[in-house]
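Let us practice reading a record.
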Amino acid sequence: MMRISQVGLGNQNHATTQAQKKRNQQDFGNEFEKAQLKISNHAQKRMSARKLNLADDDYVQISKAVSELQEKGSRETLLLYKDMGLIANVQNRTIITAMDMNEIGTVTNIDSTKFIK
């Protein structure tokens, strides 16, 4: 009898472990999805014309900032990062335009600004 109950507990633990792994994979998938940023065609053209380049780690920093702004209810934001300003639609997680620091004068139709260090 004791062996049967141990096998039963082992199977139960295995099932619990499998369910936990599946939940962790789903959580990772959700986090990965949240981290995704889109760049509009307009923003891509402006970045190319101004020689503004972003590396993978830059995207991670910007994504974190967008997530923070999303939690605070922001909709349209000016992100100031390195030598550039990026306007982003926070809800869609999309960079909609880009400019270098010399072009930033008056910015309208935003509800937040984030300095990313």
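A brief commentary: Strands lie at 38-39, 76-81, 84-89, 94-100, 112-116.
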